[in-house]
Design a protein that fits this description.
Helix 1 packs across helix 4 and helix 1 packs across helix 11. It is built from 11 helices and 44 strands. The chain is α+β, with helices and mostly antiparallel strands. The two termini are 32 Å apart. An 8-stranded mixed beta sheet has the order 37-38-40-39-41-42-43-44. Strands 1, 2, 3, 4 and 5 form a 5-stranded mixed beta sheet that branches.
Length: 719
């Protein structure tokens, strides 16, 4: 028998890729995450499965250069776990965090990192890092978000909307704050805080273990959405308190709750005062609690106005509940929320966002400002007298940096060396460097700056090998990547072009990494397309003006950059056929793909729009009002950014795809858009995904969706 040629092997691998992509859940299985480093730097906790196809996460410990399994949900000791499933509040947390695995998906520790608490299907478990089997603790009800006290004596958790504590030995389970109304919870985060703000927690221990700062959330005034499964009409709907743009938010307040039961309300300011920027729509009310914590100097809270143009950092007096403004920031568009800030150092100085000049978004670290040109992404924490953060001098790379907490450094020190996207967890003299590069994914344990071990990444290698061409296109030097088929040679017939961007706020695809979207782009290239991915205006990493250029209009500049990149790429690479161009995307990029064929049919000849937020009035308050304001005050912004009124302009093939269980971008977006297209007499294709949410995780659905997209695009472009 003649052995297969290299070309035949590549083709066979490409055919098997969609199944691999789905089976590995976008190559996320087997990837270690949620690193916690003990204060002495000796122990590193994390969660990970046992292979690139194992959907069950285990709890692991890295110590003395080796890994040790602490808790395996499939082990015999867990066989007697009570049935009943994961509590709905925990399911909601996982959806917001895009968790696709089961098992130990999150955990928390005491200050020393020796006592670990986690929940499995609502049951509380604890394990000690020095040895011994995991131990089940009986609780009053299903457990959500368990967290040990700093001294390890108590474990707090939420059950049925009440914040409770139980002793680490399993005794004295009692409530600290119980719901005082039908729509009130204690210790949980509301929808907007989890989905759009990035605050997933709802309570924080005091360092002395004697009290907690607790969020009280009242959703009585929030409009309800009912997520149903048409394929199972007897199943009751899932109810979500979802504040759409222009509608009431959840009312979030804070209390200091003593473990003895006494409570003190935190007196948050009602509205911003002098210095708040005015605009066409102004709302000074502090409706958002965007960050909170408790350190040795007391609770620290950040609040943001409804119009997002003022953020105040408040130092809280735990005895009286009064607050003092420690920092204030304004912006004429919106105040960007930098993850990890504010951070209060041992000296009492703050680490907060700053504008060091040159349009850079930087940091103020105890009075010292990061240099212009260093675009800061996130503050990771402080350890061993240094503040660690991620930042980049080039938009396609993100590195880990550190700066002396006492300000003695003249310049920040870069910790990561290899081009790529790096982040870290820190504790004592130890840095766990999590690195994604064009060569792959590694996790290195550094101690005092020197390698002291590694943590295995067990994810599968994609069956297609990405071959991106790095480009900087047009007068705006648009960072782009071009993917060509491995079998394509100069002089071959021109290739149809597939634009596959995200291009929206808060996410980049053009990075020095090898990750799932890079593999998907190469797979589409192997199917006969030239795939172009471009990060244009509105994406992170290129300064404040670049990111905020979409204020008031989320489409015009973004589409212009995609078109400019297409034409510039074709000028450099004559093998691109600009008479056959399509765009595909999901979420914002699905919205962009639909807009592309509506607004520029002379450029785009087909589109696949997945989970497209076609009617911006249906999206949530914090996210949408950031860009477009209040729909009752600035309706023209929403009209200009809605696709519904433009449905009659469709002249190109368009496939709309949407998960029927999506509680982020509701399927109503696609149904309303489809109805408008039908009313205008415009043919189109609608592909409903039964049981799928915003992240399509069902194996067969995810696999076949790639194939259906490919076939639709091939047919539409005559390939």
């Amino acid at each position: 028998m003649t052995p297969p040629s290299p070309a035949d092997s590549l083709a066979a691998d490409a055919e098997r890729f969609p199944a691999q992509f789905a089976r590995t859940r976008r190559f996320s299985l087997g990837v270690p995450r949620q690193f916690t480093v003990s204060p002495d730097g000796e122990r590193v906790l994390f969660v990970r499965g046992t292979s690139g196809t194992d959907p069950v996460s285990r709890l692991w410990l890295h110590e003395n250069g080796t890994e040790r399994l602490l808790a395996d949900p499939l082990a015999p000791g867990f066989a007697d776990e009570a049935a009943g499933g994961v509590p709905p509040e925990e399911l909601a947390r996982r959806v917001r965090a895009h968790v696709t695995s089961s098992g130990v998906v999150s955990y928390a520790t005491d200050t020393s990192g020796r006592l670990v608490a986690f929940a499995l299907t609502g049951t509380l478990w604890v394990v000690r890092t020095e040895g011994g089997a995991p131990r089940r603790i009986t609780t009053a009800g299903p457990v959500v978000d368990p967290r040990p006290s700093p001294d390890g004596s108590l474990i707090a958790y939420v059950s049925a909307g009440a914040l409770r504590t139980v002793r680490a030995d399993g005794t004295d389970d009692r409530p600290l704050a119980e719901p005082d109304g039908e729509h009130i919870t204690y210790g949980l985060s509301d929808y907007v805080s989890q989905e759009s703000i990035g605050r997933s927690r709802g309570y924080w221990w005091s360092p002395r273990s004697d009290a907690l700062l607790v969020a009280r959330v009242d959703t009585a005034g929030v409009r309800r959405r009912y997520i149903t499964d048409p394929a199972d009409p007897e199943r009751p709907p899932h109810v979500v308190a979802y504040p759409a743009a222009g509608t009431p938010n959840a009312k979030v307040s804070l209390q200091v709750v003593r473990v003895t039961g006494e409570r003190t309300g935190v007196r948050l300011p009602a509205e911003a005062g002098t210095g708040h920027p005015e605009a066409g729509w102004t709302d000074r009310a502090f409706e958002y609690v965007v960050a909170a914590g408790w350190d040795d100097r007391g609770p620290l809270v950040s609040v943001q106005t409804r119009d997002q143009r003022t953020v105040q950092v408040l130092a809280v007096d735990e005895e009286s509940g009064t607050t003092r403004t420690a920092h204030r920031e304004h912006d004429a568009a919106w105040v960007a929320l930098r993850p990890g800030t504010p951070l209060r150092l041992a000296s009492g100085a703050l680490v907060v966002p700053a504008r060091p000049g040159g349009d850079t978004q930087g940091l103020d670290i105890g009075g010292a400002t990061t240099p212009p040109g260093l675009e800061v992404r996130e503050v990771l924490g402080a350890a061993d007298g240094r503040v660690f953060f991620t930042a980049g001098e080039e938009p396609t790379e993100v590195h880990v940096w550190s700066y002396a907490a006492d300000g003695s450094d003249e310049e920040p020190v870069r910790v990561s060396a290899t081009p790529g996207v790096h982040t870290a967890a820190v504790g004592g003299p130890t840095v766990v460097l999590d690195s994604r590069t064009p060569q792959g994914h590694t996790v290195t344990v550094l101690r005092a700056g020197s390698p002291a071990g590694s943590i295995a990444v067990l994810a599968e290698e994609p069956l297609v090998t990405p071959r991106p061409l790095a480009l900087s296109l047009g007068r705006r030097e648009l960072r782009s990547r071009l993917y060509l088929p491995s079998w394509h040679r100069p002089g071959d017939a021109p290739l149809p072009v597939l634009l596959s961007p995200y291009a929206g706020h808060g996410m980049q695809l053009v990075l020095e990494v090898r990750t799932w979207w890079v593999a998907v782009a190469q797979w589409f290239a192997e199917q006969g397309f030239a795939v172009l991915v471009t990060d244009g205006r509105g994406t992170p990493g290129r300064g404040e003006a670049w990111e905020k250029s979409v204020h008031g209009d989320r489409l015009t500049a973004v589409l212009e950059d995609q078109i400019d990149a297409l034409h510039a790429a074709a000028d450099h690479h004559p093998g691109l056929d600009t008479a056959r161009v399509a765009m595909r995307g999901w979420s914002f990029s699905g919205y962009l793909a639909a807009a592309a064929v509506l607004r520029h049919p002379e450029v785009f000849h087909a589109a696949v729009a997945g989970a497209a937020p076609a009617d911006r009035r249906l999206y949530d308050t914090h996210w949408e009002e950031r860009f477009l304001g209040h729909p009752d005050v600035l309706p023209e912004n929403y009209t200009r950014n809605s696709l519904l009124d433009e449905a009659g302009a469709l002249t190109r093939p368009l496939m709309l795809v949407h998960g029927l269980a999506d509680d982020n971008v509701a399927v109503a977006h696609t149904l309303r858009f489809s109805a408008a297209l039908l009313a205008a007499g415009r043919p189109h294709t609608v592909l409903p995904l039964s049981g799928a949410g915003h992240l399509v995780s069902q194996e067969r659905t995810a696999s076949n969706l790639l194939l259906l997209e490919r076939d639709f695009l091939r047919k539409s472009l005559g390939l």
